[in-house]
Amino acid sequence: MSDHPKEVQRFLDAVSALEQIEDDAACAKAITDVLKDWPDSHARLREIRQERVLKLREQGKTWQEIGDLLGIHFTRAQQIAKGLRGSKRPKRDSSPE
Q1: What is the secondary structure of the chain as a DSSP string?
Q2: How confident is the model at residue 80 (pLDDT cuts 50, 70, 90)?
Q3: For 33-37, what is the mean pLDDT?
Q4: DSSP readout, 10-25?
Q5: Residue 3's pLDDT is what?
Q6: Whether the predicted pLDDT of 95 surpasses 80
Q7: In a 10 Å sphere around its CB, with 0-12 CB exposed, 13-18 middle and 19+ buried, how is residue 43 labelled?
């Protein structure tokens, strides 16, 4: 049994269902359709998360409490509230060569 909320589990199940499509072309096409809409969905998910983090702050929760609730570091919770995106890549050096 998963400890994810049911909505998250439905999303994960949908991804698994795509993987289970037997016809290779149909599977690839279905995934292409999902990925085509992903940028808008991804941006909306970020907005919703930011809104909810801000609401948690309005409720008097500390950054530490919010970080603990989300399973992230408290400084990341602050970044989310500001709309800052995390980056796994180091910043590019913009100095002239």
Answers
A1: ---S-HHHHHHHHHHHHHHT-SSHHHHHHHHHHHHHHHHHHHHHHHHHHHHHHHHHHHTT--HHHHHHHHTS-HHHHHHHHHTPPP-SSPPPP-S--
A2: very high
A3: 95
A4: HHHHHHHHHHT-SSHH
A5: 84
A6: no
A7: exposed
Q: What is the mean pLDDT of residues 49-71?
A: 98
The tally of CA atoms less than 13 A away on the side-chain side of residue 81 is: 19
User: Residue 60: left (phi > 0), alpha (psi -120 to 50), or beta?
Assistant: left
- Alpha-carbon span 24 to 73, nearest angstrom: 40
When computed from its CA atoms, the radius of gyration of the chain, rounded to whole angstroms, is 18
- Tally the C-alpha atoms within 13 A of residue 77's C-alpha that lie toward its C-beta: 20
Which distant-in-sequence residues (6+ apart) come within 8 Å of 68 by Cβ? Answer: 74
